[in-house]
Amino acid sequence: MLPVDTLDTALVTGASTGIGAAYADRLAARGHPLVLVARNREALDTLAARLSREHRVKVDVLPADLTSSAQRAEVERRLREDEAIGTLVNNAGASVAGGLAEARLDDVEAMIGLNVVAPTRLTGALLPRLLARGRGSIINIASALAIAPELSVGAYAATKSYLLTYTLSLHKEVNGRGVQVQAVLPGITRTAIWEHAGKDIDSFPEHMIMEVDEMVDAALAGYDMGELVTVPSLPDGEEWNGYDEARRRLFPELSRSQAADRYKSDIPEDA
Ligand SMILES: NC(=O)C1=CN([C@@H]2O[C@H](COP(=O)(O)OP(=O)(O)OC[C@H]3O[C@@H](n4cnc5c(N)ncnc54)[C@H](OP(=O)(O)O)[C@@H]3O)[C@@H](O)[C@H]2O)C=CC1
Ligand SMILES: CC(=O)[C@H](N)C(=O)O
Q: Which Pfam families does the protein's record reference (predicted)?
């Protein structure tokens, strides 16, 4: 296990239930003081009371709707100013009902605000301080759909592709400067997100559904191993490395002074 700095406070978004609540529980068990963010103050208070009692860590709640720029600004301020915070788990997220043609555009915009804008702004608020002290962690909860948009409908998968790409860019920028980053790509995990988006999780075969504790424990094991990208259900980690290497093999070909021959009209079709 990598050394976990028990003095650092972890701020977890979407901590009132589901994956975020499980992260809060596991991080508290590791000795991290916590700042819990979500809209439901009552659920945050209940969780905070339990975690501080069971794990003897300080747990603050910071209720905020991360789609509201005014409320999100309070979370940004906390990340910028609270010297104790060294870990950020960008977990809050939602999906919306319907495909690209049917979904309510206001709902889609709110989803992009929550899944894309919020983690970008929260990371941007914290990162300068982490880099200045040369220590810290940022964990972004994306989704397996980031690399498999064909398995879903609507714009949700695109928000998760953003978070994966953002994490790769973040890693490039902070690599070697003491800040650990990780993108987590869970598959179908049993939480309320499905119900909120009007989808029945039990329409999937049981063997495709992971329980939330198992998912978070696997993601933290990937974090401890120093993984940049963790796919909790992928049996063979080398499969991810092969996928990533195939992508990287394209790099030298992606920008050239000449268009590829197949796009040139002067090449005879039978050449
Ligand atoms: N469950 C799954 O199958 C998968 C989930 N994921 C990702 O995991 C993350 C967690 O999802 P999951 O636990 O399943 O979902 P849940 O719906 O169970 O939990 C979502 C959390 O985000 C919070 N949240 C929602 N909207 C807002 C908002 N506007 N402002 C602040 N907080 C908000 C909720 O709290 P509150 O309502 O109190 O604000 C809640 O704590 C998401 O990013 C999701 O995309 C990825 C792959 C699979
Ligand atoms: C609601 C979903 O599509 C789910 N969160 C996922 O990322 O698989």
A: adh_short (PF00106)
23 is catalytic: no
Indicate whether 5 pLDDT > 60. Answer: no
**For position 103, which CATH number holds?**
3.40.50.720
Decide: 188 in ligand 2 pocket, CB within 6 A: yes
CA of 250 to the centre of ligand 1 (A): 34
Q: State if pTM tops 0.90.
A: yes
pLDDT, tens only, 116-137 = 999 999 999 999 999 999 999 9
With respect to residue 96, please indicate whether it lies within any of the assigned structural domains.
yes
Distance 20 CA to ligand 1 centre (A): 7
**Angstrom distances, CA of residue 8 to CA of 13, 82, 136, 160, 209:** 16, 11, 8, 27, 33
In-domain check, residue 253:
no
Residues paired with residue 106 on neighbouring β-strands, in sequence order: none
